[in-house]
Design a protein that fits this description.
The protein is α+β, with helices and mostly antiparallel strands. Helices cover about 30% and strands about 20% of the residues. It has 2 domains: about 15-155, Glutaredoxin; about 170-215, Antioxidant, Horf6, Chain A, domain 2 (2-Layer Sandwich), CATH 3.30.1020.
């Protein structure tokens, strides 16, 4: 069965640019962003890895660990990192999983389970579906999945926005509306009665019985 939101993220052991890891042990009790790439030395992915490296302080501030994956051996990742530093101004400052045996790509449903062989001889087009973002909570459940086409670079400011929403809604009985940004009004979930809303969210506004908004909780 394909993975879905709220499924447990599969555990794995694999080589990375920072040594072998057990994914669950590495993640600990942190939020995690796992994002994948179809091949090393690909142009769009080169810009994405540089972008995430520059945003690393934003992830750290939110208690989020970042880990990349590319369908190539770890030694190739090290050579690619030099190109990323040269062209993007910052080398990856987070681990990159080597997935030359395709194990993680298949485990996370990014390649069919019956895909034969290794990364050897495979092209980016063969691995075009290995362009995903997974946000995984401290409970090891998948909170978000996005798949991107190869020609469209990912918007990591949006990933950070989603993390802000996920962390806020995990702490409070709220939801966030379309285009929400940190500090904007929130939506009170329908699980909260009006009496409780009065106590929890003083001054909330009822637009419809099912749509109530309030200031973002501190």
């Amino acid at each position: 069965m394909p993975l879905q939101i709220d499924d447990i993220a599969p555990n794995f052991t694999q080589e990375t640019t920072e040594g072998p890891i057990d994914f669950y042990e590495w993640a600990g009790n942190s939020w995690v962003v796992l994002f994948s790439h179809p091949k090393d030395f690909t142009p769009v992915c080169t810009t994405e890895l540089g972008a995430v490296a520059r945003l690393k302080p934003e992830f750290d501030q939110r208690g989020v660990k970042v880990i990349g994956l590319s369908v190539d051996p770890v030694e190739n990742h090290a050579r690619w990192a030099a190109d990323i530093a040269e062209t993007q101004g910052t080398a990856p400052n987070f681990p990159m999983i080597g997935d030359s045996d395709l194990k993680v790509a298949k485990l996370y449903g990014m390649l069919p389970a019956e895909t034969p062989g290794t990364s050897e001889g495979r092209t980016p087009a063969n691995n075009a579906t290995v362009r995903n973002v997974f946000i995984i909570g401290p409970d090891k459940k998948i909170k978000l999945m996005i798949a991107y086409p190869m020609a469209t670079g990912r918007n990591f400011d949006e990933i950070i926005r989603v993390i802000d929403s996920l962390q806020l809604t995990a702490r409070h009985k709220v939801a966030t509306p379309a285009d929400w940004q940190q500090g904007d009004d929130i939506i009170i979930t329908t699980a909260v009665s009006d009496d409780d809303a009065t106590r929890l969210f003083p001054g909330f506004v009822t637009h419809k019985p099912y749509l109530r908004t309030a200031k973002q909780p501190a």
